[in-house]
Amino acid sequence: MGEQKMGQGIGASLLRREDDRFLRGRGQYVADIRLPGLKNVAFVRSPLAHALIRGIHIPEAHRGSVFTAADLVDVKPIVAVSALPGFKRSEQPLLASKKVRQVGELIAMCVADTRAEAEDIAALVELELEELPAIHDMLTSRNSDAPLIHEEWGDNVFLETFVDVNMEAAFDAPIKITREISSSRQCMAPMEGRATVATWDHRAEQLVLYTSTQQPHIIRQGLAECLGMEQLNIRVVSPDVGGGFGYKALMPPEDVCLSWLAMRCGHPVRWIEDRREHLTANANCREHHYRITAYADRDGRLRGIDCEATVDSGAYSSYPFTACLEAAQVASILPGPYDFPSYRCRTWSVATNKCPILPYRGVARTGVCYAMELMIDAIAREVGLEPFEVRLKNLVRPEQMPFDNITKKHFDSGDYPEALRQALDKVNFESIRERQKKGEPDGRRIGVGIGVYCEQGAHGTSVYAGWGIPMVPGHEQATARITPDGGLEIRVGVHSHGQSMETTLPQVAHEILGIDVARIKLVHGDTEYTPFSTGTWGSRCAVMAGGAVASACREVASLAKGIGAHLLQTDPDQVQLVDGAVCSHAGSISLKDIAYTWYRRPQDLPSSVDPRGLEATIGHKPKRDAGTFSYAAHIAVVAVDTEIGDIEILDYVIVEDGGKLINPMVVDGQIYGGLAQGIGTALYEEMNFDASGQPLASTFADYLLPGPTEVPAAVLGHMETLAPYTEFGVKGIG
């Protein structure tokens, strides 16, 4: 095809179009937005994890600059709902008035010309708090004598889930191994924290909220519910977003507070999260505990997994739904890429006096992979086999695809054993074993670790409808419009926070229409101009938005061929679209000339011309919307100083399969970024709390992140097993 000759379509490693402005410091983030009359906000936050509010004392000189819950009349609290049986809803007040349930909970909002002045006012507000016993341990939170975080519940459990598939059949297995495993609580730490600017547009009669979010349309929906407004009177704009990773896939109370304030005060207001707020009050994730038993035969064949998993969900469930997202998924995704006949898993989403647990890259997958891979290693030691041999015995095989696993996850395609074999070959596994036998001159020990995982992406209606939450994805829509001079404008409701959509979605459009990607513009991040979408989450954009862009461009291609056929004086079924031109045996006419005719010389067209012109909005769903399954094998080689605990990563190999890669270079970037975050999870990042519920890290001096010197130059390998249900065979990769 012509577009393939040009090297701009699916599979081309185009340079990221976004990078020019980012590398030159020309990106526009919320903090860059300046509006006339803009004032700044600082919040008075609770210094205690659990307390009754007995008084809020505002200095008389600042009464007009400080707002409390008593001022927010007719504003509803944030309530995340779910239809999952047994789910207990929590009401998160925008500004606490009776009780605080976490350190950093909002109590008052202070406004001044500058952030420094607003913080000075906040420091003068005196709180009268009666401290209550705090719960910092999710396991003790389930005890019958534990203090209640939400008294009306009667306990501290958001939700309990249970799965049992033929578990008793595994009890006679000759090998039984039990482990207790826990993972650290973390903070996401994107380069840009949360940020909000709110103003009232008198001409449009709209609240306009500029916010750093992955989900502009969901924020609009949540604001309407809390403020009691029509969505047509709210516009949400998300400009450049400096990282999200799930942290910005929710509506924070600060967004609602500033929206209310902007409408009341009549001038724009701004809040920019500082790093101390981020670390101590807003951004926790990934705290899991497992009591897990593996049953296996003497040959290493896995017979069954029996697990009790607890997730620390914090004090509230954030909008649209966060408290049970991790634990509810644990039960369904713990088996991972392995095929075995017996399974039981009970999970608890437990409330504690910490900030809400929020989605973070690979939601719940990190914890379950950690648990499962440790159990596979334990089986290997027990039966005397190499860890890779036990994995190869238990991985779903390519001839089984498509495969419904024990929790009914539909693995669409792939060759998991081959990914592992390629990784073993790239790392030269046998030479590592020889090196271990010889020993190191410096006395360090050499270790090698293997991990294999699969990741469900692009979840659809069939997955989320049963959860009964405010965010159920349907047909993802895109608008494609050829401009009067023959360029192309694409509008999508998803929003980029590092996925390179301004590069990759034009590549999809080019694949269909042949228009040079330099003449294709992506419009996203603004509810005023884009079709509704649940946003960017769950590795869904390439599958859902990419499919929608392809569908819209095909419709535009059909419209263009109709006009082109008339101008070529032939039938529409006698023409083709090649290299950005409509062609027939009689000649060709470019899309640019077709656009010129439609927009500027309509007299040259018959009255029967399709009135839709050169624009189409189309929704897309894969043929089966239960999600795609990408997967990878990772192998790490490390040197460990057993006296001081120092760890050096000597080698790291990743072999992944994301289906058809729209832009392989972008995929490499996503994988390198994921590797850096994984190293942080494994070796550096941990948010600890003391017995009174106080977070023990408030700066990056306390909360460690890996930097360039801690991330190795990984060896990457790509497999491309096409997904059978998606456009071009793509799978999620983020």
Describe, in plain words, how this protein is organized in 3D:
The two termini are 29 Å apart. The protein has 17 helices and 32 strands. The protein is α+β, with helices and mostly antiparallel strands. Residues 1-6 have low confidence and may be disordered. Strands 3-7-1-15-12-13-14 form a 7-stranded mixed beta sheet. A 5-stranded mixed beta sheet has the order 9-19-18-17-10. Among the domains are: 2-26 and 475-620, Aldehyde Oxidoreductase, domain 4 (2-Layer Sandwich), CATH 3.30.365.10; 135-394, Aldehyde oxidase/xanthine dehydrogenase, molybdopterin binding domain (Aldehyde Oxidoreductase, domain 4). Helix 9 packs across helix 10 (387-394), helix 14 (501-513) runs parallel beside helix 15 (541-567) and helix 15 (541-567) crosses helix 16 (591-600).
Short key terms for the protein model shown above:
single chain, 734 residues, alpha+beta, Aldehyde Oxidoreductase, domain 4, 7-stranded mixed sheet, 5-stranded mixed sheet, 17 helices, globular, disordered N terminus
